[in-house]
Every structure is written in C-alpha cells, then in structure tokens.
Amino acid sequence: MPEPVWDSVGNEVFPEKKEECGLFGIFGDPDAVQKTYFGLHALQHRGQESAGIASSDGEGIQCYKNMGTVMRVFRSGTDTLERLRNPIAIGHVRYSTTGSSTVENSQPLLAEYSRGQVAVAHNGNLINAQLLRDEYEAYGSIFKSSCDTEIIVHLLAKPTHQSKPDPLGHVLNHLQGAFSLLFLFSDHIEAARDPYGIHPLCLGRTAEGYYVVASESCAIDAIGATFLREVEPGEIVRLDRNGLHSRFFVKRGSITPAHCIFEHVYFSKQNSRIFGENVHEFRKKLGRQLAREQPAVADVVIPIPDSGTSAALGYAQQAGIPFDMGMVRSHYIGRTFISPDQKLRELEVTLKLAIIKEVVKDKRIVVVDDSIVRGTTTRGKIRALREAGAREIHMRVSCPPIRFPCYYGVDFPTKEELLANNRTLAQIKEFLEVDSVGYLSLEGMLSCAALPKDHYCAACWAGKYPIPVDVTVNKFCIERYQLYMFEGFTTAHE
C-alpha cells in the first residue's frame, strides 16, 4: 500500500490528486539511455513512485528500475546509466493506478517469450484487467506483479495471437480502457495509443534524425529534439533502422476521440503541447472564463502553485485585479516523508507550502486552484492564509466540481470521498472555510478547448463514461493480497 501522509496535527491525509505515468523512448541514438534519463526528468511530474529504463544493443535487452524519483533511482556517481548504454531505449516513471506501489510493479516490465525479449511501459488503466487476468490464470498463467501492464505481455505471448498477421495489433484489440504503450523489442520500438486517444503520446526527432516518442512534448524539448506530431488514436508507430512506420489496429477515424481534458487542467506540464494546443495557454483561457463566470471583489489574485498559476494569471488579466504569488511551494520535500513527532510534522507542512505574508496580510484575496478533489489539503492552505492575516478569501476553481471517479488512469478516490459529491456550494464553502467559492462550468471549460466538445472525456464531472466501466473496480482489484510493511517485515492480508 502507498505510505501515509500526515497533517500538522498528526492525522492521516490523502493527496488531492495524483499523477499518472510518463513514457519516453528513442531509437538509434548512441546516447539513447542518457537522453531517456533526461526525458524522464522532464516527465517526473507524471509519477514519483518508481522509475526505470530498458535498453537494447539490437540483440538483447537489459533493464534497471527501482522505487523513487528518476534522480534517486539513477543516482549520480553510479555507473548504472553507463551499464545500460545502448542505442535503443525506453523509460518509465510511475504513479500506480492499478496495483500497489512496489518494485515488482515498477516499469518497464521485461519478459521473454517464444519470439524473444520484450520490455513494456504503460500509461493508462485497463478496465478489463481483472477479467483478462482471471481468464489467463484459469489456464495456468503465472503473474509476477499486480499491475495491469503484465496482462499485455501474456496476451502477446499467447500462441494463437502470435500466428496473426499483426500480433501486436491483434493484442491491442483485446484491451479496454486507456493505454499509451511503448514496446521495446531487441531491434525496434513500437508505440501505441488507445482508439479513444485518452492520454497524450507524442513523436519527435532529434537534429541527427533519431526518432523520439514521449508522453508529453516537454520531454522532447528537454533533449533538444523537435516535436513532430501526436501518435493518433488507434495508431501503432514502429521505430527501426529504416525509420518510422505507421499502421492502425482499428479503422482510422472510426471512433470519436475522448481526450482526457484533465490532462490540460492539471496533469500535463505548462510547456507541453497536447491535443493540439499549449497547456499554459489553455489554462489561461480557463482562468479568463472563470473570471467571467465567477467574479469577485478583491485586492489580489494568487494561485495554488504550481498547476493553478496559469489559470490565476488568466483570471487576474480578465478581472483587472493584480496578480501575485502569495504561496511558494518547495520542490524538495518528498510527498511521503513521515516525521517522527508533531513538531517536525508541523515544520514539514511549513516547508512544503510557505505563505508570503506581505502579499496576503489585510487583503481580500482570490485563490485560484486548478481543481479540488477531497478538499482536505485545500482547507489546510486556506487556514494558513487566514493565519497569515488574509481578510477575505474567495476560492475559485478552474474546472467544474469533481463528482465522479476516474477509471482511465487518474487515481481519483471513490465517489463517497469526493468533496463535491452530495454537497451543495454552500456546504463546500463551509467545509473549505472560505468567504465564497466558485467553480468554472462544464460548458465554460469545454468552450476553451481547441477541439470539438465531444472529443473530450469529462466523466469525472458529468458521470458519462465514453467506455463502459464496472464501477466496482478499484486500484487493487487484481491483487489477491495487499502487502503491508511493518518494522521491516512484509505481511499479507486477504
């Protein structure tokens, strides 16, 4: 199970929203492993639980992965990257959306079957994972992990699937849900995106002509490569010594896309270009629309950093209210740091989010955040602003109230845990302890997007899921046991 996080008085709390996974791959570059390392650094915001790189010399694959951030896993001063040095590589940073946060579930997953070795890296969530796993286990398959990605390996290894004209395309047609995938074979890379294009996957090329694939264009920029385009929904892109080749495992354009608009609202990095537009510019549009729909009389607009900053800037510009940074977030405090006593826990909270008193003292402030999930951490920030002397606090949120869980790769809690579930705006205002609260409307949010409204998934706000789901499924649905660490011992409970 993920380690707990504690508030300033010693109660266990849960992160408001958690990242997804990040993928990076490059073919043919002598520095492929080092560039994969840099690419994963650029994607670190998508997952901090584990990191891994698999590489190939054209004949055999080797892989190294472990728990922690990219820098922690591939520590400077070690020769890990040098030992992985090969011209073909893929990498992965993980936040678990199916399966526990364990080294067994870290990626890339490396396996060997009748056609040789394969390493797989996955961003997304397979909603038919439990059904497929039950079926394969019934016929004797043995699984080493509890993540949904391993199921793809078993599908690929099945003899009747290997006999198909396009084995990988055949396998992908068995999957339901959200998936952006990288497959590293000994002499080539295959990149694939689900038919709905739920999460982004981008293509780029270096100045030397080597092709790159990544979850976001910010990782392509990080290694000095040029963004080319996104992998299309339902497309498989092959990178090999002959260049780039494209094919589709479903009829091209036969399915209306369902891009996760929460990628734009929160997940993706501001300098990324996804779903046809820049993330920062999109968030500024959200802020401007929010100011039109939810105005406030105030002295200053401040963001909840970092993901709320762009929307707050747009809000301030539209409202004609000065913008300032009333909070500073530390990027150097671990998310799962556990302090031994209350005083140190209080210090940890202060270090994670510092209030600039001179900005907020005796002011009427508009606080802009990208979203609110459970509301517990948001309420803590509001209390800190009160203690710093804020006279009025008006909470503004640049997306609609989140009332439904996500089953496509965003680790939202159950419906009962969501702040906006069965609460009125007045009750939310009371819970957050603010003077007013205002959300952007669903129509207003979708009006800011570059693509047609029906090209986005808005299930977490509207409850309409583009791919039918079993609502009883949860993050640990394919685990027979949940593991707990206690004083160095691992215990299992059904």
Keywords:
2 domains, disordered C terminus, 494 residues, Rossmann fold, seven-stranded antiparallel beta sheet, alpha+beta, Glutamine Phosphoribosylpyrophosphate, subunit 1, domain 1, disordered N terminus
What can you see in these coordinates?
- The protein has 17 helices and 27 strands.
- The protein is α+β, with helices and mostly antiparallel strands and 494 residues long.
- The chain folds into two domains: 13-255, Glutamine Phosphoribosylpyrophosphate, subunit 1, domain 1 (4-Layer Sandwich); 273-457, Rossmann fold.
- A seven-stranded antiparallel sheet has the order 5-4-6-3-12-11-13.
- The protein is globular.
- The chain starts with a strand and ends with a strand.
Task: Let me know the CATH homologous superfamily of the largest domain.
Answer: Aminohydrolase, N-terminal nucleophile (Ntn) domain
* Strand fraction: 25-35%
Poorly predicted runs are 1-15, 335-342, 475-479, 481-494
Shape: globular
Number of β-strand runs: 27
Radius of gyration: 23 Å
Write the CATH architecture name of the largest domain. Answer: 4-Layer Sandwich
* Content-based structural category: alpha+beta
Count up the domains.
2
At the fold tier of CATH, the topology name of the largest domain is Glutamine Phosphoribosylpyrophosphate, subunit 1, domain 1
CATH class of the largest domain: Alpha Beta
Intertermini distance: 13 Å
Give the number of helices: 17
Mean pLDDT: 88
Order of strands, widest sheet: 5-4-6-3-12-11-13
Percent helix: 25-40%
